[in-house]
Design goal:
The chain is mainly β. It has one domain: 3-layer Sandwich (Rieske Iron-sulfur Protein), CATH 2.102.10.10. The chain contains one helix and 13 strands. It has a five-stranded antiparallel β-sheet with strand order 2-1-5-6-7, with no helix packed on it. It has a four-stranded antiparallel β-sheet with strand order 3-4-13-12, with no helix packed on it. It has a four-stranded antiparallel β-sheet with strand order 8-9-10-11, with no helix packed on it. The termini are far apart.
């Protein structure tokens, strides 16, 4: 046999260990950027930015099911003025920037695809890199995102908000 021989007691080269550690770190970073370990279905946050509560959009936070032209999402009373509610199971955030005005946006941050996670001080916040979006129109308030959140179609009829 010519060339290198196999030695079962030989230790891996330093280069091999460093490369493996780098690959593991990269995999962890990519996983963290594209996912969230919060399993709740929705989050409501008011403009004060203090605390937030979670609620299931199929329970006390709203209703789910067929409605004429869309899916019943929430009641207008579920959306705090100057804040909003994030419906993770529907991938939509509904805001009330001014009394009686309701807006909806995708929860997917255009920077790296992470899901926004909270609403504080008039901004929808992405936890991955700190981008913030205006609750009134989804525009960028703070980067690194360079484009705003995508608008979602909702209909408000009486006290019911429906996702188109």
């Amino acid at each position: 046999m010519t060339g290198a021989s196999f030695n079962p007691t030989a230790k891996p080269a330093r280069r091999t260990i460093v490369a493996a550690a780098g690959a593991a770190g990269l995999a962890a970073a990519l996983t963290a950027c594209g996912s969230s370990d919060d399993s709740s279905d929705s989050t409501t946050t008011n403009n004060g930015g203090g605390g937030s509560t979670t609620q299931d959009s199929n329970g006390s936070g709203g209703t789910s099911g067929g409605a004429a032209g869309g899916t019943a999402l929430a009641k207008t009373t579920d959306i705090p003025e100057g804040g909003g509610t994030i419906y993770k199971d529907k991938s939509v955030v509904v805001t009330q920037p001014a009394a009686g005005t309701y807006k909806a946006f995708s929860t997917k941050c255009p920077h790296a695809g992470c899901a926004v996670s909270s609403i504080a001080n008039g901004a929808i916040v992405c936890p991955c890199h700190g981008s913030e979006f205006a609750i009134a129109d989804g525009s960028v308030k703070k980067g690194p995102a360079t484009t705003g959140l995508t608008a979602a179609d909702i209909t408000v009829s009486g006290d019911q908000i429906t996702l188109a």
